[in-house]
Amino acid sequence: DYSGEWSIEDSVRRMSKGKVCSLERFRSLKDKLKLLDEAIRLHDGNVITAVLIFMKKTLHSEILFRELKERQEALRHFIHFLKETEDQQLLMELFRYLEWTEELAVNDKHLEASGQDIFRKHPRKASLLFMPLVTTLFYSCIYHYTESEGTFSSPTNLRKTFKIPEKLYILTALAARAKLRAWHDIDALFTTKTYKDLKDRQQLMVYRCKLDRGSPEEDKIDMILSNTVLLQT
């Protein structure tokens, strides 16, 4: 067979059987989308990824993102591919395009309306849309701290997805949990190896200044500061 004679369906079928097949002749957006839809129809992850790599090379990112938004199965494979290849820049562009932080905020608005305890005690003051990553992380540490890593909105998932440095993650988590006076979480954060750097005590001292003088919370911070001094001696 001559490759130029293969239809879109034949090309995808050959790829699903592990055969080499050039996709270069499919130049129009219409043909590329037909390739992707045919791969999705077969539910073949390897073929879907191969077509996505071809589309990534030959389409403007916004066009690709727009089409992936309508094809959730392909979107999942593309996100996995970007994570595996550590293409963090394109991954962040994709997340911004999809406005996932807004999706998170919309979901939280629903939880807030249902009267969930954390939102009643600490109401949100602003939308997350177009906020810096560290702001989103802080928000996540306030409202989603106990969620598992597999949950999109969890702090650990944000840290892993965007490769947030451990020190920045810990300092942001400390600020968020201190705001809630979640001392058990603060204790756990202070047992991490990263935080045993003397310079980090300055951050805790900033938190201390925000507390009521003579309060049990201030005493707790003083005790932690004393312990960190002992760790350095």
Automatic annotation (TrEMBL):
<dbReference type="GO" id="GO:0005769">
    <property type="term" value="C:early endosome"/>
</dbReference>
<dbReference type="GO" id="GO:0007034">
    <property type="term" value="P:vacuolar transport"/>
</dbReference>
<keyword id="KW-0967">Endosome</keyword>
<dbReference type="GO" id="GO:0006886">
    <property type="term" value="P:intracellular protein transport"/>
</dbReference>
<dbReference type="Pfam" id="PF04840">
    <property type="entry name" value="Vps16_C"/>
</dbReference>
<protein>
    <recommendedName>
        <fullName>Spermatogenesis-defective protein 39 homolog</fullName>
    </recommendedName>
</protein>
<dbReference type="InterPro" id="IPR040057">
    <property type="entry name" value="Spe-39"/>
</dbReference>
<dbReference type="InterPro" id="IPR006925">
    <property type="entry name" value="Vps16_C"/>
</dbReference>
<feature type="domain" description="Vps16 C-terminal">
    <location>
        <begin position="28"/>
        <end position="106"/>
    </location>
</feature>
<keyword id="KW-0968">Cytoplasmic vesicle</keyword>
<dbReference type="GO" id="GO:0005770">
    <property type="term" value="C:late endosome"/>
</dbReference>
